[in-house]
Amino acid sequence: MVSDLIAAARPRSKHAHLAGQVALMAETAALYRLDDAQAAQLADGLMTGDAGTSDALGRLGLTARDIAPPPADLTRPVRALALNVAQTCNLACVYCYASGGTFGGPDTRMPWDVAQKAIDALIDDTPPGGSIKIAFMGGEPTAARALIRDSVLHARRRAASRAISVGFSITTNATLLTEQDAAFMAEHGFAVTVSLDGAAAANDRLRPTRGGSGSFDRAARGLQYLTAHQDRLSLSARVTATPDNLDLGSTMDALGALGFTSVGVSPMITSPTGKGTLDGEDYATLLAAMIGCGTAWMQATLDRKPHPFANLATALVELHRGQPRSHSCGAARDYLAVDASGDYAACHRFAKNPAGYMGSLGDGIDHAAREDWLADRAVERQVPCQTCWARRLCGGGCHHEVLNAGRPACDYVRGWLHFAMTAYARLMDERPDWFDGVA
Amino acid sequence: MAKPPEPLNRAAILGPPYPQPVLGNPVSSLMESGVGNCYPGLEFDIRQLDVRFFPGLTFEFLGLEPAGPDGTQGVRLVNAEAESDPLFDDPAPWLKALKRQLNGPEGGALGDGDWYLHAVAQHGSRIELYDFNVFQNAVQMTPYEGETCWWIIRGIEADVDLTVELTQRAPSGQPLGNPVVLHGRRRHFLDDTGMIPDVYRAGELTASMCSPWTHDFRDCACQYWASNHPDVVLGEVVGPQAEDGNAAEDAAQPVTFLDWMRRRGPAQDIAAASTQERARPERYDPYEINLRWQELDFVLHGTETDGTPEMPPLTALHAAYPSLQDVITALTDDLAPLEFTLSMVYLYAFFSLRAPEDISEDERRDWPDLADDLRAARQLVLSVALSEMTHMRWVNQVLWTLDRAGLYPKGKYKPIVQPHSDASKTAAAESSDLEDRVLGLRPATPDAIADFIAVERPANRLDREYAGLVDHLRANADGYPAGLYELAVRIDSDGLQHYQKFRDVKLILSRYEHDTSIYLRDVKLADADDPAVADALGLLADIVDNTIKGYQAERADDMPRADACIQAARSAMRSFQVEAEALASGARKPGESVGVPFFAAWQGLGDGQ
Questions:
Q1: Looking at chain A, which residue has its C-alpha nearest residue B138?
Q2: Which of B8, B142, B143 is nearest residue A32 as measured by Cβ atoms?
Q3: Which of A111, A138, A192, B433 is deepest in the core (most CB within 10 A)?
Q4: Using CA atoms, how far apart are residues A26 and A389, in angstroms rounded to an integer?
Q5: Mean pLDDT over residues A324-329, rounded?
Q6: What is the predicted ipTM?
Q7: CA atoms within 13 A on the CB side of A333
Q8: Which of the 8 DSSP states describes residue B331?
Q9: Pairing relation of β-strands A357-360 and A263-267?
């Protein structure tokens, strides 16, 4: 069945795609509901390629637009910063993009003056009344709790004097988290993402400590402190999907039982050692698992019950907004990362990587490098993407993954988006109020 | 098909997102923001007006200390009293009430200790100049720094009731004690006649201004001074030079950028640092610039130089006219008609460019910048055409000034508003002579633009003739009426702009060079008797006629009549522009682009063939 979906989702025309009775205009990300006759017309057109699709769309009253060259400058003002406060970690997850937290170098902590300079530069560049986001990353950021504390207090004070609001976030394995940490994060309204790959067994397989033992129990303890403050924190779990933990249904149940109301799944496409990466058949299995979770989420949502699976909700919101994009994320566009030595990188995954170097605190942000990088990596310029109907929804894929491993997951992404489109039509039909309040 | 596809998401309902429209002019372009849009504060510092935004009170706006917010930032009260503020002479009730407050307990409280502006309220909205946070279950109020407060105060409206609250502060910056509340209105910063009120002391509005020879030459924050001197230069080549002028022994010398404001000294020149912070220690301190400014080198072509460049002797460029008669002949037979001719030739080229409104949707998609490029190119060409008309007027002004002074051959004076005797009704496209080609009507092809550039090049024929005129007038200053020399200099020095503008046009249109039909109309020069151009030619005759009459009136010092004639000419010009544009765009003869034969009315001109 999944293979049918994958086949249905393959690109037939760069202009449009049909998922059941939902038509997507590829260039503008506009979605239309078609009746049976209209859908049949479009399906016929799609069979014959671009020209036939264009004609069919024309007869439906829709105009296919050609890919427009992107504007010369795709940068936006930087309003979000990731501080890599600890290039060190107490775990040794098999797939870690930071190779055990250190990015291939010695264990390092960020010095205070680097953090302060980076924060001051971010705040001073933002006009009064604006808002910024500071994320604490690693390695395992809670290894540098004093630095996080100082950074938060400093940032709030300085931003306050310019009427700028600051949001904080952190991605952590929760194994070193203390009760004071959780209280501090709650006080400052953190968005906390805890990395967990499933229930105890799956998690311990994939996320061992440096000594080799399991980490689940310690993570669960740290998690307890966080769930105690759920009213003031925004708490979510992040599951890395490897070939070893594709039973996502039971993962959802397990993490839901731990108290998470939001669980996001992220496929492991590239890891420095190759361990844990998905391959060939794995993508089909993953897609089936994701659809299983999506279907469960949909049923729960229609019954007005909660379900923690976050991916489908995110996809539906984005489909509803219909904002065509040139990149998958804000890396280098409005978001930069800073590492312990004070270098800027396109995002937290590019720490210490010349391929994503974007300047330094001493020399300032290299805006020309940002412009060039974004121009090169715009989806309009990527070769397989130019003819793919999903380009404006996908954005071309995670830069780090694409640069390291190419694009092995396109069928998966298209299959998922195809499913999301049919889910969208259904939810718009049966519970349109769910979309109220989507900006 | 029963009904069209049902749009589901925002992209389908609203259509593709358009770039955000700009609503209204930006604040920096408004009159009250000062004339230097790029360098606000060059005339006066508008922020100093807000120092006295509330009658009777004087504030100072304090920013952040380098170490960070320490509670001293914000809007601090410097003075509070009604006596020295002439606004209180006005009998308005609110001023009387405010004066009572300032002379009463509120004023008394404000006279003791440090007070800060706490909040402003207007139209029922109250804004506190503090950021409000909850830290460890306590309310923490962090004062906004001066600039942020100023943004808020800038938004206060005049003629509407205003309430201000002031408080004292604890050392942490937290407000302390009961506020002093004053009611009033914002001061008007200009009175009915546009005068700034007397309450501002002499020098107050420029108190925070640039002072070039002290700190701002190095530290000007709006970059005005930075834009007037180079940041980095190539150093002078030291030591033996190779044939191409670069250092024979050190290949790096001519390509290493040096900081122009570096402290000169016996040590080797170091390469320029990449940020201001790094460069600062090596630069002259502000007081040093006062003392050692002569050490800052002249810079020619980006390279520092000590010596005077060698220039060819200027006298070789032109020959001064030996006599006044030669001057007059040159002006009447050559220069004035030439200006007129070029003006018409450029106008013809202007109308041959497509209008931004003419481009189709497909073209707009394929060439997103085409509309703006056309707008720019047309504007540039039109401005040169108008400039030539201005020159023609100035030349005529020289002539009638000479006539009024009795220096013109008796009875011979007449205004010159006609084409040159060498002008042709069509372009002499095959001629190898630049001047033949350029005196005929042509569309704005790349070749035509290249010719325009060549003919407007500095030290061209026109330049040389004007330079001769200037020389003659300078050499015989006593014999001529006052102002004539200055007028001649003015005409002479105006020419460089044309050259640069045509070069800009070439640059703008160069990206479409592979297919000129993208920006050019397929304009065909009409015959003089073609009924389609009859209206246009009639208007052109009106323009010329009224201009001649206007010049004659000015010669006779009959300014009202001159004004009437020039206005009539201008009105005819506006109508002509509409008509010629309609002809060229194909509105008059659908499918055909018609070019007005500007020179048709004058007999005796060649056909150029």
A1: A187
A2: B8
A3: A138
A4: 5
A5: 93
A6: 0.79
A7: 16
A8: I
A9: unpaired
CA distance B467 to B450: 24
d(CA A124, CA A342): 17
Q: What is the pLDDT at residue B2?
A: 62
> Among residues 39-98 of chain B, which lie with CB inside 8 Å of chain A?
64, 68-69, 73
Distance from CA of A209 to the nearest CA of B (A): 34
Test the A interface: residue of B8, B139, B276 with most A CBs within 10 Å: B8
Residues 374-433 in B contacting A (C-alpha not used; CB under 8 Å): none
The residue ranges of chain B whose pLDDT is under 70 are 1-2, 15-43, 209-216, 221-222, 236-255, 267-270, 307-319, 426-430, 459, 495-496, 603-609
Interatomic CA distance for residues A127 and A61, integer angstroms: 44
Rounded to whole angstroms, how far apart are CA atoms A177 and A136?
14
Overall average pLDDT of the A110-139 stretch: 94
Chain A: closest CA distance from residue B143 (Å): 6
* Helical (H) or strand (E) element with B168: strand B161-169
Greater pLDDT, A39 or B45: A39
CB contact at 8 A, B214 and B222: no
Q: Which residues of A touch B64 (CB under 8 A)?
A: 158, 161
Instruction: Give me the half-sphere count of Cα atoms (radius 13 Å) on the Cβ side of residue A217.
Output: 2
| Residues contacting residue A74 through CB under 8 Å, at least 6 positions apart | A326, A327, A333, A371, A374, A375, A378
Alpha-helical regions (H) of A142-280: 145-160, 179-187, 200-206, 216-227, 248-258
Count of Cβ atoms closer than 10 Å to residue A326 Cβ? 19
Give the minimum alpha-carbon distance from A38 to chain B in angstroms, rounded to a whole number: 8
Q: Could you tell me the pLDDT band of residue A38, with boundaries at 50, 70 and 90?
A: very high
- Rg (C-alpha) for chain B, rounded Å, is 33
* Residue A30 to residue A27: CA distance in whole angstroms: 8
Annotate B510-546 with three-state secondary structure: HHHCCCHHHCECCEEECCCCCHHHHHHHHHHHHHHHH
pLDDT digits (tens, 9 = 90+) for B481-522: 878 888 888 887 776 678 888 988 998 998 888 899 999 999
Q: How far apart (Å, rounded) are the C-alpha atoms in residues A385 and A379? A: 6
pLDDT of A132-167, one tens digit each? 999 999 899 999 999 999 999 999 999 999 999 999
Q: Show residues of chain B in contact with A359, CB under 8 Å.
A: none
Q: Would the CA dihedral through A255, A259, A264, A266 be positive or negative?
A: negative
Angstrom CA distances, A222 to A184, A281, A304, B454, stand at 14, 36, 31, 79
- Cross-strand bridge partners of residue A137: A84
Q: Which pLDDT belongs to residue B429?
A: 63
Q: What value does the CA radius of gyration of chain A take, rounded to a whole number of Å?
A: 22
Please tell me the distance in Å from B158's CA to the nearest CA on chain A: 24
Is there a contact between A322 and B10 if contact means CB atoms under 8 Å apart? Answer: yes
pLDDT at A52 over 70: yes
The residues on A that touch B, with CB distances below 8 Å, are 22-23, 25, 28-35, 37-38, 59-62, 65-66, 68-69, 128-129, 154, 156-163, 187, 319-324, 362-364, 424-425, 428
Contact list, A34 vs chain B (CB under 8 Å): 5-6
- Helix B336-352 with B559-585: angle, nearest 10 deg: 40
What is the DSSP code (8-state) at residue A64? P
- Measured between beta carbons, the chain B residues lying within 8 angstroms of A434 are none
CA distance A199 to chain B (A): 35
CB B81 within 8 A of CB B162: no
For residue B3, what pLDDT is reported?
A: 82
How many of the other CB atoms lie within 10 Å of CB of B91?
A: 7
Could you report the per-residue pLDDT of A183-229, keeping only the tens digit for each? 999 999 999 999 999 888 888 888 988 888 889 999 999 999 999 99
